[in-house]
Amino acid sequence: MAVTWTRAWWRWTGGPTTRPVERVVRVDGRSRADEPGGERQAFGRWVKRPRVDGGKRRGDGCDRRSLSPTWVLAVGCPQPAGRGGRGVGVGRDASRLAGLQRRLQGIAGGLAVYDEAPDNVSSSTYSSTPSLPGCRVAPGMRADAGLPLARVTSNRVDLRALAAMDGVGRFREVLPMLMDPVAFAEAFVSGDAAGGCRVPSRGMERHRATLRSCGVASDARSRPAFAMKAFTTPKKDGRTARLVLDARPLNDAMRRPPSMDLPRLRDFIAEVERHRFAMQCDGVSYFYQFPVDASISRYFGIGMKGCDMLLNVLCMGWSWAPCIAQRASNVLVRDLGLAWVDNFLVLGGTLDEAERNVAVFRKRAQAARVEVRAEGDDALWQVRSRFVCVGVEFDLAAETQRHRLDPSWAERWVDGSGMTAVLSGRATARQFAEVFGGAVWATDILAVPRCHFAALLSFAGRLGGRMVGAAAPVWDEVVDVPPSARRELGALRKIVRENPWVVGGVPEDTGSVLWTDASSRAWAALLEAEGRFVDGRQGVFAGPDADAHINLKEMLAFAEGVVRLCWAPGAQRCRIDNAAVVGAVAKGSSSSYAANRVLSRSLRVAGRRGIVLRPDWVPSGGQLADPYTRGTSLPRFPAQLPLPRSRATPFDLF
Q1: CA–CA separation, 424 vs 418, rounded Å?
Q2: b/e per residue, 33-63, with b = 16+ CB within 10 A?
Q3: Average pLDDT, integer, range 416-445
Q4: Which terminus of the chain is more solvent-facing, meaning fewer CB atoms within 10 Å of its CB: N or C?
Q5: Cα dist. 194→101, 103, 178, 315, 318 in Å?
Q6: Pairing relationship of beta strands 509-518 and 522-529 according to DSSP bridges
Q7: How much is the mean pLDDT over the chain?
Q8: What is the pLDDT of residue 468?
Q9: DSSP assigned state of 621
């Protein structure tokens, strides 16, 4: 593969004594230039403007055609005490990396590769090179998407009017983060409010005029407290891009934001299906409609060549931004419908009710100066019974309300290049993460329990743990996806390709209650109906199950109860005194591979019998199956319920 231009930086990663890059050498196959010290970033990951071609300073706008088709490596590795910084570089082909390895053999500790141009050459080229054992690849700066910025609205929300509508007070709780510099400073971890971080953006200078004209950003008159890297990502239309700020330095310096108040997806779907009509719209450049006080905008700097810029609006990439946007949206749709960040859904059980709610929503949006637009080809304020919202297609006009995945999203996920790479067994960690995220989304919408994909979940957990624990996550590293995980993903792919309708509604109750419990050596399951025990089973754990964790034993007891005792279709209530099992059954998955396998068996049997499991937690003192796990034999059925046991508490002494 001909590589016209790529850059990478090697960083010393010798553990807790990590220091920034001290010396950088630039090699392009024809010439070499050395810049000791250089103009480097605070984290020592790259040099802002290295010298190449005989010492001529070139920045991001250099003529790439003047460079030979080769690898361009800059290496900066601080040495242990007593040894000076040394930088080396190589060009042309992979065979010369052996020479690089020999020259680096005297350096203690590990090395990391930072790939700044993944669109030109795959980072896996470095990680798979046998002459550099022990090195790992880490993503570096994101390249500019090469697309013009989409024109955004110059409208600004009236924050005070919106706060006046907040009858709950959740939006007023976070509003000072946009208007009060004192409250903003108090959100910093002690001593970090001064900032001082500056990370340059690559290729963003050409967007300066667009940012100015839309009022999104302005030139900084003084040094920003945080000047961070900005990049662009393509929008859905594929012709324009959106601006995103890599606000990790700012996020790391601040405390975590409060809850977004975003509804759970399943609750969102259930609430929509309780109505017959809906009006959908979304905010125009929603984050950019929220103004930021001038005294706070200095924390939202964009590092640029020549002159930095300051964002005057809510920063996309700041950890507090989604919370502020969601709570503002909840104010607009309160008692009228639902909101999913910048998507507004006004609901009604009848056409008249829906139209009245739409009129109220319009008044609120106008009073707060929130600019909205229709989704897709719909006319603004049009009430419909069939629509697509947040990736879900709803059909409320059917006799029984139903939903499924947005067909266009399902097609992209099923036939995407990431899916092809993962199913082939060798994909980058980034590709797997994107495909797995889509799998989680699809299973939630299609109501497919994730416990059926135990191997896929297990591999994703191991990979995620490795990335989280790494000092520099290697998202472009090629990973081997296990065959079992690929088989399960292939099965889910078939389900998503079919994209069946999921019928909403709550099934009728079976009228019985399943009680299950486990002790360290035995399990018991009993079925209660009409105030009596009508059936039951008990047993002793043997083999590997005898040494299993108590959570797994509780799951095994639950599975035995479902398989042996539950036959009537409908909603089956279950009483369990183990919170981990209750949570796993409720959401359809567990963090344990073994528990997922057991739960999958239970849900498959329940599904074939038309049973929907409804787990509830009960305290151990109220668990009616507990005595039968501790030596008590099962009664002759039907049997009267025993009195619940009570446990003494410290308050009983008073």
Answers
A1: 10
A2: bebeebebbeebbbbbebbbbeeeebebebe
A3: 94
A4: C
A5: 41, 41, 18, 19, 17
A6: antiparallel
A7: 77
A8: 83
A9: G
One-letter amino acid for residue 71 of the chain:
W
* Alpha carbons 24 and 86: distance in angstroms, whole number: 8
Q: How far is CA 318 from CA 208, 254, 301, 313, 463, in A?
A: 20, 10, 12, 11, 26
Query: Which residue in this structure is represented by tokens 């065979």?
Result: 95
Cβ proximity of 374 and 384 under 8 Å: no
Q: Which residues of 564-590 are buried (b: 16+ CB within 10 A; e: fewer)?
A: ebbeeebebbbbbbbebbbebbeebbb
- What is the residue type of 12? W
Cα dihedral 261/262/263/269 (nearest 10):
160
**Which one has a higher pLDDT value, 149 or 171?**
171
Residue 552 pLDDT: 95
* Model pLDDT for residues 604-621, shown as the tens digit of each residue: 999 999 999 999 999 988
The pLDDT of residue 595 is 95
539: Cα within 13 Å, side-chain hemisphere: 17
- Run of H or E residues at 357: helix 351-367
Q: ∠ CA(492), CA(401), CA(615), 5° rounding?
A: 65
Q: Residue 19's pLDDT is what?
A: 33
| Displacement of CA 466 from its chain's centroid (Å) | 16
Q: 454-469 vs 429-445: helix axis angle to the nearest 10?
A: 130
| Euclidean distance between the first and the last CA atom of the chain, given in angstroms as a whole number | 80
Can the peptide bond before residue 638 be classed as cis, meaning omega within 30 degrees of 0? yes
- Are 106 and 96 in contact by the 8 Å Cβ rule? The answer is no
Tell me the two tokens of residue 485.
């995980």
pLDDT at residue 59, rounded to an integer: 38
Residue 595: both structure tokens together: 């528990």
pLDDT for res 66:
30
Amino acid (1-letter code) at residue 120: N
Q: Are 590 and 598 in contact (CB under 8 A)?
A: no
Distance of CA 501 to the CA centre of its chain: 26
Beta strands in 291-352, from DSSP E residues, in sequence order: 301-302, 309-311, 337-340, 343-348
Q: What is the pLDDT of residue 455?
A: 96
Alpha carbon dihedral 417, 318, 142, 145, in 10-degree steps, equals: 70
Angle at the Cα of 369 from the Cα atoms of 368 and 372, rounded to 5 degrees: 110
Whole-angstrom Cα distance, residue 354 to residue 279? Answer: 8
pLDDT per residue as tens digits for the range 49-92: 333 333 333 333 333 333 222 233 333 333 233 333 333 333 33
- d(CA 142, CA 619) in angstroms, rounded, equals 52
Q: What pLDDT, in 10s, does the model give residues 272-319?
A: 999 999 999 999 999 999 999 999 999 999 988 878 899 999 988 899
Does the structure show a pLDDT above 50 at 6?
Answer: no
Smallest Cα–Cα separation from 596: which of 438, 493, 482, 458?
458
Q: What is the DSSP letter of 22?
A: -
User: Which position has the higher pLDDT, 425 or 37?
Assistant: 425
Tell me phi and psi for residue 596, to 5 degrees. -65, -40
Question: Between the CA of residue 429 and those of 52, 352, 426, 476, what are the distances in Å?
Answer: 33, 50, 9, 6
